[in-house]
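For practice. Supply one:
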Amino acid sequence: MLKQRGEPPLMKTMIWPFEIVMSFVSLGWAYVMFRQINLFEEQSSRWLVLNATLDEWAVGVITLTLALIKIYGFVLKSNKWRKVGLTLSGVWWSLICVAITMGDGSFSIGTGSVAYAGYAFLCFLTSSSIKEGEKVDDSHERSVS
Protein backbone atom coordinates (compact mmCIF):
# COMPACT_ATOMS: atom_id res chain seq x y z
CA MET A 1 0.00 0.00 0.00
CA LEU A 2 1.30 3.47 -0.91
CA LYS A 3 1.45 6.15 1.74
CA GLN A 4 0.46 9.67 0.91
CA ARG A 5 3.10 12.16 2.01
CA GLY A 6 1.56 15.56 2.53
CA GLU A 7 0.39 17.83 -0.24
CA PRO A 8 1.42 17.16 -3.83
CA PRO A 9 3.97 19.65 -5.19
CA LEU A 10 2.51 22.64 -6.96
CA MET A 11 2.77 22.53 -10.73
CA LYS A 12 4.30 25.51 -12.44
CA THR A 13 2.88 27.43 -15.36
CA MET A 14 5.05 29.52 -17.58
CA ILE A 15 4.40 33.02 -18.77
CA TRP A 16 3.53 32.58 -22.42
CA PRO A 17 5.28 34.85 -24.93
CA PHE A 18 1.82 35.43 -26.36
CA GLU A 19 0.84 37.24 -23.13
CA ILE A 20 3.72 39.64 -23.58
CA VAL A 21 2.91 40.17 -27.27
CA MET A 22 -0.76 40.86 -26.49
CA SER A 23 0.31 43.39 -23.86
CA PHE A 24 2.34 45.20 -26.53
CA VAL A 25 -0.60 45.03 -28.97
CA SER A 26 -2.87 46.57 -26.33
CA LEU A 27 -0.31 49.26 -25.52
CA GLY A 28 0.08 49.96 -29.24
CA TRP A 29 -3.65 50.35 -29.67
CA ALA A 30 -3.81 52.67 -26.67
CA TYR A 31 -1.00 54.81 -28.10
CA VAL A 32 -2.69 55.07 -31.51
CA MET A 33 -6.10 55.84 -30.02
CA PHE A 34 -4.70 58.61 -27.82
CA ARG A 35 -2.71 60.11 -30.72
CA GLN A 36 -5.26 59.87 -33.56
CA ILE A 37 -8.41 61.35 -32.11
CA ASN A 38 -10.21 61.37 -35.49
CA LEU A 39 -9.29 57.88 -36.63
CA PHE A 40 -12.86 56.55 -36.65
CA GLU A 41 -14.15 59.50 -38.68
CA GLU A 42 -11.25 59.43 -41.15
CA GLN A 43 -11.69 55.72 -41.86
CA SER A 44 -15.42 55.57 -41.29
CA SER A 45 -16.08 52.64 -43.66
CA ARG A 46 -13.92 50.36 -41.54
CA TRP A 47 -14.84 51.73 -38.12
CA LEU A 48 -18.54 52.50 -38.56
CA VAL A 49 -19.60 50.44 -35.52
CA LEU A 50 -16.90 51.83 -33.22
CA ASN A 51 -17.49 55.36 -34.46
CA ALA A 52 -21.15 55.04 -33.51
CA THR A 53 -20.46 53.62 -30.04
CA LEU A 54 -17.11 54.82 -28.65
CA ASP A 55 -14.66 57.68 -28.93
CA GLU A 56 -11.00 56.98 -29.68
CA TRP A 57 -9.91 58.05 -26.20
CA ALA A 58 -12.35 55.53 -24.65
CA VAL A 59 -10.87 52.74 -26.76
CA GLY A 60 -7.43 53.93 -25.66
CA VAL A 61 -8.44 53.74 -22.00
CA ILE A 62 -9.90 50.23 -22.48
CA THR A 63 -6.83 48.87 -24.26
CA LEU A 64 -4.44 50.54 -21.81
CA THR A 65 -6.38 48.97 -18.92
CA LEU A 66 -6.24 45.54 -20.58
CA ALA A 67 -2.49 45.87 -21.06
CA LEU A 68 -1.92 46.94 -17.46
CA ILE A 69 -3.99 44.02 -16.10
CA LYS A 70 -1.90 41.53 -18.09
CA ILE A 71 1.37 43.21 -17.13
CA TYR A 72 0.30 43.34 -13.47
CA GLY A 73 -0.42 39.62 -13.61
CA PHE A 74 2.89 38.48 -14.98
CA VAL A 75 5.05 40.97 -13.10
CA LEU A 76 3.50 39.92 -9.78
CA LYS A 77 3.36 36.27 -10.93
CA SER A 78 -0.36 36.15 -10.23
CA ASN A 79 -2.12 33.52 -12.31
CA LYS A 80 -5.48 34.96 -11.27
CA TRP A 81 -4.69 38.37 -12.83
CA ARG A 82 -3.06 36.81 -15.87
CA LYS A 83 -6.22 34.79 -16.47
CA VAL A 84 -8.48 37.81 -15.91
CA GLY A 85 -6.40 39.94 -18.28
CA LEU A 86 -6.38 37.35 -21.04
CA THR A 87 -10.08 36.60 -20.68
CA LEU A 88 -11.03 40.29 -20.82
CA SER A 89 -8.69 40.74 -23.78
CA GLY A 90 -10.36 37.81 -25.53
CA VAL A 91 -13.75 39.45 -25.06
CA TRP A 92 -12.40 42.82 -26.25
CA TRP A 93 -10.72 41.45 -29.40
CA SER A 94 -13.88 39.45 -30.18
CA LEU A 95 -15.84 42.70 -30.09
CA ILE A 96 -13.25 44.41 -32.29
CA CYS A 97 -13.48 41.49 -34.74
CA VAL A 98 -17.26 41.88 -34.93
CA ALA A 99 -16.96 45.67 -35.26
CA ILE A 100 -14.55 45.32 -38.19
CA THR A 101 -16.57 42.52 -39.81
CA MET A 102 -19.70 44.67 -39.67
CA GLY A 103 -17.73 47.91 -40.13
CA ASP A 104 -19.34 49.20 -43.30
CA GLY A 105 -22.84 48.09 -42.39
CA SER A 106 -22.61 44.77 -44.19
CA PHE A 107 -20.91 41.48 -43.42
CA SER A 108 -17.39 41.45 -44.84
CA ILE A 109 -14.46 39.37 -43.70
CA GLY A 110 -11.01 40.79 -44.27
CA THR A 111 -7.53 40.44 -42.87
CA GLY A 112 -8.37 42.67 -39.89
CA SER A 113 -11.34 40.62 -38.78
CA VAL A 114 -9.38 37.37 -39.17
CA ALA A 115 -6.42 38.76 -37.22
CA TYR A 116 -8.56 40.00 -34.33
CA ALA A 117 -10.50 36.72 -34.26
CA GLY A 118 -7.12 35.00 -33.97
CA TYR A 119 -6.09 37.30 -31.12
CA ALA A 120 -9.35 36.52 -29.29
CA PHE A 121 -9.01 32.78 -29.83
CA LEU A 122 -5.42 32.75 -28.59
CA CYS A 123 -6.34 34.89 -25.56
CA PHE A 124 -9.06 32.41 -24.59
CA LEU A 125 -6.82 29.42 -25.32
CA THR A 126 -3.91 30.79 -23.29
CA SER A 127 -6.24 31.83 -20.47
CA SER A 128 -7.67 28.32 -20.26
CA SER A 129 -4.16 26.86 -19.89
CA ILE A 130 -3.43 28.98 -16.78
CA LYS A 131 -4.31 27.21 -13.56
CA GLU A 132 -4.96 29.52 -10.61
CA GLY A 133 -3.49 27.20 -7.98
CA GLU A 134 -0.17 26.78 -9.75
CA LYS A 135 2.99 28.79 -9.26
CA VAL A 136 4.42 30.85 -12.07
CA ASP A 137 7.54 29.26 -13.49
CA ASP A 138 10.40 31.69 -12.99
CA SER A 139 13.20 29.22 -13.67
CA HIS A 140 14.29 31.34 -16.63
CA GLU A 141 15.25 34.13 -14.21
CA ARG A 142 18.82 33.75 -13.03
CA SER A 143 20.56 35.68 -10.32
CA VAL A 144 23.63 37.60 -11.30
CA SER A 145 26.50 37.07 -8.88
